Amino acid sequence: MPPINFGRRYIRLKGLIKLRIDARSLVVTAVLLGATLVIACFGLMIGTLRLSVHEVFAALSGDAAKMTRTIVVEWRLPRVLAAMIFGAGLAVSGSIFQSLTRNPLGSPDIIGFTSGSYTGALIAMLIAGSTSFIAIAAGALIGGLATAVLIYLLAFRKGTQGFRLIIVGVATSTILSSVNSVLLLRSKAEVALTAAAWGVGSLNGISWAQSIPAMVAVVVLLLIAAVMARPLRAMELGEDAAKAHGIRSERTRLVLILIAVVLTAAPTAVMGPVSFVALAAPQIALRFTKSAQSFAPVAAMGAFLMLGADMVAQRIVPGTIFPVGVVTLSLGGLYLVGVLFRQARSSS
């Protein structure tokens, strides 16, 4: 009996590992990765000291002068890799939440996990009085996880439903935003300015020591999320379909929420809360691929958007490097208005 043609082309890999890859998603992922690598190369070239492509590759291979190698490998490469990996992590986190809530607004920016990470970091800086990177990162990570637990418990009632999770998350986010404002207003001016600057979200001055632990955690969680993609797609079909596939919905949902929260909290602990990427990247990738079977195009889109936004932030005003959060927040506001406008038109 010939296979049923659903109008999509798939590439089948047979052998030790059997895979069925959607051809359109593969092409979109490849194009996005290629564009991201081009932007990454450009990011290694630009700065106060402009370098050529040859000098960049010489520095990466170890054949360049010591100063050139320091600029490329120690100063610029951590920023570029962090933008790519953190963007991918935030995008996959947003995709998980949007799938669980079945709502394009169901991202960590909207639900409140980003605000929780910011609250944890503010407590470390303003109440504990510590400005060390480890203390701020630990506070952001603990704040994000604590907020996730609180929202999950408040939204749980004979199971966790997407709409209830969004409503509870938005309410929690509003409360935490007020708490953050109070903490900033009651602190000393110089400390409050430092905390507020961190709260915008920035990759400025990032180093290997700061970024490597978070990048490793994000990469590991991205691999785990790829394994959890199939149960997540089965759950999108409803509870009955999930049970038919042998999936324990509530336990699987809890694991997915934990993965998504850490994918948000780990980048936030390093660069501060960055909006827009988790909200928009999954939906933009969905419009290109017309399929939500894989996290690969979503991760590639997140890396492309974050790195592209960071390049724009460095070039808005010559000689001035803006925080990447300024660019993503501006674009995210426009995107959010567009989503609300489309939903209003579809409902009417």
Automatic annotation (TrEMBL):
It holds the Pfam family FecCD. It is a multi-pass membrane protein. CDD domains: TM_ABC_iron-siderophores_like (cd06550). It is found in: Cell membrane. Keywords: Cell membrane, Membrane, Transmembrane, Transmembrane helix, Transport. The chain crosses the membrane at residues 21-46, 80-98, 110-128, 134-156, 163-185, 205-227, 254-280, 321-341. Belongs to the binding-protein-dependent transport system permease family. FecCD subfamily. PANTHER family: FERRIC ENTEROBACTIN TRANSPORT SYSTEM PERMEASE PROTEIN (PTHR30472), FERRIC ENTEROBACTIN TRANSPORT SYSTEM PERMEASE PROTEIN FEPG (PTHR30472:SF24). This is Iron chelate uptake ABC transporter family permease subunit. The lineage of its organism: Bacteria, Bacillati, Bacillota, Bacilli, Bacillales.
